[in-house]
Amino acid sequence: MTRTLTSPRHRRSLRAISLATLTAVVLAGGMAATTAQAAGSTLQAAATEKGRYFGTAIAANKLSDSTYTTIANREFNMVTAENEMKIDALEPNQNQFNWTNGDRIVSWARSNGKQVRGHTLAWHSQQPGWMQNMSGTALRNAMLNHVTQVATHYRGQIHSWDVVNEAFQDGSSGARRDSNLQRTGNDWIEAAFRAARAADPNAKLCYNDYNTDDWTHAKTQAVYNLVRDFKARGVPIDCVGLQSHFNAQSPVPSNYQTTISSFAALGVDVQITELDIEGSGSAQADNYRKVVQACLAVSRCTGISVWGVRDTDSWRASGTPLLFDGNGNKKPAYTATLDTLNGGTSNPQPGGCTVAVTRSTDWSDRFNVSLAVSGSSTWRVSIQLQGGQTLQNSWNATVSGSSGTLTATPNGAGNNFGITVYKNGNTNLPTATCSTT
Ligand code: G3I
Hints:
Elements: H1 8-12, H2 19-22, H3 43-49, E1 53-58, H4 66-75, E2 78-81, H5 87-90, H6 100-111, E3 115-123, H7 129-132, H8 136-153, E4 160-165, H9 188-199, E5 204-209, H10 218-233, E6 239-242, E7 245-246, H11 256-265, E8 269-277, H12 281-296, E9 301-306, H13 332-343, E10 354-362, E11 366-374, E12 379-384, E13 390-395, E14 398-400, E15 405-409, E16 416-422, E17 431-436
Helix pairs in contact: 3-13, 8-9, 11-12, 12-13
The site of ligand G3I has 10 residues, from loops.
């Protein structure tokens, strides 16, 4: 089968941008960005209710576009750098690291209370010229040095790393992809995972690939066998990323849930890492619904990320594969995704409740934080202020503590409460966890 992912231009003529989509009425999306969303009214809130995250790829050069950042901030609680943490971006010259754009994305994510997926530590593609020209032991050592330096730089800030990306061939062979990294020896993948674990013991370590969504495909089976072997031999691996780039040539497979549950049964989490589905209208919406349903049906499917915010931000914009149109309006695919998240099976919550944290009014010296509890009316919320921050005020809950960790319990005003935090130089959003009492 011909790989379809690398030639979006070839399909451009097949895709007409839907005028109906472009002229769709402006939905209420931009209206409520500064206040707490009721649980379930955004993708991140609805996913959180189900014990999952909902993420997007972010491009550093779009962080100055307020339409983009408003949607991204409102809807998503997991961020993947679309290109800024790739090998060519971070290590343009050997052992000279350029953290600027990767750090911008991490900083934007953390200051808005979002987590970060790291993408990607080792890959045959997007290598800087110096690495492309290397081989053998020198390349193996350079790759391991890259993994170690990058995972160390971002230690403690990454939810999950795509440690190795796209290491298997398409087609029926089930073989490894030939590459300079593969030619350093078949153990290059496990060597990368061990180096990543040593550098950042708390990040989940994922193997990430495309065309691994159909359970019957040789490539899917090959990745399955790799993960099974790693688990059997104690090679550190925590998750499998299914990129899930779908279109007419590569549709959502009917056995997608089987693929997810089969990987999960090996004892790893499954993350849908780069979801996009070409199309428009109700057909596209149905396909998004199928993907979300399959994930919600497997408790170890812990999150979904789409590969961009608006159609115009997509690597294959002509296929209009995302949840927002070029004007930032919600598409039918968005509504289907949100509705499916709200209707699906909930992952068991360790604490029996969840809490959504949102920045609201912001002043130069302080900001308000809105907290919305769901899942229980008898709760205790533990709020971790960021370094230097102190509590100034609180409402609709009893809040104890003044810096570091605060504890909030109900005072009869319901499940939505708020605090005012003095920044003292730290603008990052506090984090919070919920448990039932
Ligand atoms: O930044 C330059 C810009 O200065 C220049 O004007 C422009 C035109 O040449 O190119 C820009 O760089 C491009 C970059 O995207 C940013 O737009 C690169 O040429 C282009 O190759 C790069 O494409 C990225 C691609 O990975 C590279 O492999 C896509 O944005 C990105 O969405 C895509 O993401 C991959 C995942 O990492 C792995 N899975 C598949 C997925 C889709 O291919």
